[in-house]
Specification:
Layout: H1 3-16, H2 26-33, H3 40-53, H4 56-64, H5 67-75, H6 84-101, H7 110-130, H8 139-154, H9 165-175, H10 179-188, H11 219-240, H12 245-255, H13 263-270, H14 274-296, H15 301-308
Length: 309
């Protein structure tokens, strides 16, 4: 069986038989323990054959002899509420990534190199699976996500709610991040919650969604806002009518166009100086503002306040 086939077979077995403390998954552990550990010289020869010749048997031996390492690293990430079998599987993926990039001429052992790829693969999986809301994949965000729990335990911050200001400051200082980053990540560490979750075990207590406040505007507010918008639009149209043709064209080109023209462009168009265009624009703007105020004075009080602003 080739390296992909051997790997897929063992990975599928890991998913079926998760390795946990109660003893399940012994068959998977027994299977990977039968692969012998490699001596430095043998490991070097196998890595050379894989890198230079693409020898699949050599690559297979390198990977399978280190699957115990993937399990060991994976067990350190059991506290995130995700299936251990999936974490082990991601660790095995990291092993394959390490195999394709390992250079035996660098002088260190494959395990030393592979452990970083195993951790990276597992951490990426946890970040992808932790929340429907993207947590972030920058180096500082990853560090904060995986270091926050241990940082909280060092200052005995075991409560599930928000941290105290002094606790936030202490953690932020120790991890060299902003206070707000600590607050946000601490809230995300709680994971997603369904709005259908009961408030209490009592059936009559209702669900979380029953107490959520709708922040969207009421139908009445929407109607009022639309009326105000229509009034303002009509008032602007009426106010522009006080301008002469050249004032109107310059005002529209400077204030109402999707891509306003520059003073220089308008100066060339009307064969006048830039300063003259600016003076016309200022005069036109003052005319429109005064006309708009006069029109607003004839509208309801709410519209007057909007236009006077």
């Amino acid at each position: 069986m080739g390296i992909e086939g051997q790997f897929k077979s063992l990975t599928a077995q890991a998913r079926r038989e998760p390795v946990v403390a109660d003893g399940r998954g012994k068959s998977y552990l027994s299977d990977i323990r039968r692969f012998p550990m490699l001596e430095r010289d043998e490991e070097y020869r196998l890595a050379k054959r894989w890198r230079e010749q693409g020898d699949r048997d050599a690559g297979n031996q390198l990977v399978t002899s280190h699957m115990r390492l993937a399990v060991k690293v994976a067990m350190g990430y059991r506290g995130y509420g995700l299936p251990v079998a999936e974490i082990i599987s991601e660790g095995n993926v990291g092993l394959l990534l390490a195999l394709n990039r390992f250079d035996p001429e660098m002088g260190f052992r494959f395990a030393t190199y592979a452990i970083w790829w195993i951790r990276a693969s597992i951490q990426d999986y946890i970040l992808r699976s932790w929340s429907l809301v993207k947590i972030g994949t920058t180096t500082s965000q990853k560090k904060l996500f995986f270091k926050l729990r241990s940082a909280k335990s060092k200052i005995a911050a075991f409560e599930n709610g928000d941290l105290q200001p002094d606790q936030v400051a202490a953690i932020a200082k120790s991890l060299a991040v902003a206070d707000q980053d600590v607050i946000d990540m601490n809230r995300r560490l709680r994971g997603d919650k369904s709005i259908n979750t009961p408030l209490r075990d009592d059936d009559e207590a209702g669900e979380w969604q029953d107490y959520l406040v709708d922040q969207s505007p009421s139908p009445e507010a929407i109607v009022v806002a639309q009326d105000e918008k229509d009034h303002q639009h009509n008032a602007l149209i009426a106010a522009i009518d006080v301008l002469n043709d050249r004032e109107r064209r310059i005002f529209e080109a400077r204030h109402l166009a999707d891509e306003p023209l520059t003073l220089e462009q308008l100066a060339e168009q009307y064969n006048v100086s830039r300063e003259r265009v600016r003076q016309i624009e200022v005069r036109a703007f003052d005319k429109v503002r005064k006309a708009a105020k006069n029109i607003a004075a004839k509208t309801p009080a709410a519209m007057q306040a909007a236009w006077s602003a």
